[in-house]
Specification:
signal; 4 helices; 178 residues; alpha+beta; five-stranded antiparallel sheet; 2 domains; two-stranded antiparallel sheet
């Protein structure tokens, strides 16, 4: 009887060791993906022919007219910086923007982009540092190198960023054909 109890103890101890080892592996793999996950890596970077304001306008227009379902929640902002001769396009996900209602929301059946009430949000001090971090799908920077060339760099979501990069290339090709 004593031998059976000892065997059960060793089996339970062995099972516990396996469970602890498995839990440790799980936690290590889960935490490995949390290391600075807010940094959006550069996806593309290349010099392209064109003028930054013209290319940014073309890309923004084509992105806004894109009717694919996964592009609908995005709002595009085209910002120009004359002091550094650059334009930047941000694609903001309206699902994560404060004071914005997505165009496909049931409360907005006509699909018109509207802003929600501007009443103040009550937040804890722990949330304060996250307020300045805009949630964007991608950011495309077009900086003028010379009169005929821009340096384009895109960072953000690989899937949406790839679509934006292809649209940028189509705008470059359209500009070179004219």
């Amino acid at each position: 009887m004593r031998a059976i109890n000892q065997a059960r103890f060793y089996l339970n101890a062995l099972g516990m060791k396996k469970a602890i080892a498995g839990l440790g592996i799980f936690l290590m793999s889960a935490c490995a993906h949390l290391i600075d996950s807010t940094v959006k890596p550069e996806q593309f970077e290349a010099p392209l022919a064109g003028e930054h304001a013209v290319l940014a306008s073309c890309v923004t227009h084509k992105l806004q007219s894109n009717g694919r379902s996964y592009m609908r929640p995005l709002q595009f902002r085209n910002r120009q910086y004359p002091d550094i001769e650059a334009s930047e396009i941000h694609a903001y996900d309206t699902r994560y923007l404060p004071n914005a209602i997505a165009t496909y929301a049931p409360s907005n059946p006509d699909a018109i982009f509207i802003y929600a009430h501007t009443a103040p949000e009550i937040q804890s001090s722990a949330q304060r540092r996250d307020n300045d971090k805009a949630v964007y799908a991608f950011a495309l920077l077009l900086q003028q190198i010379d009169s005929h060339t821009v340096q384009a760099s895109l960072r953000g979501d690989p899937f949406i960023g790839n679509i934006a990069w292809k649209i940028l290339q189509s705008c470059v090709m359209a500009g070179s054909e004219s």
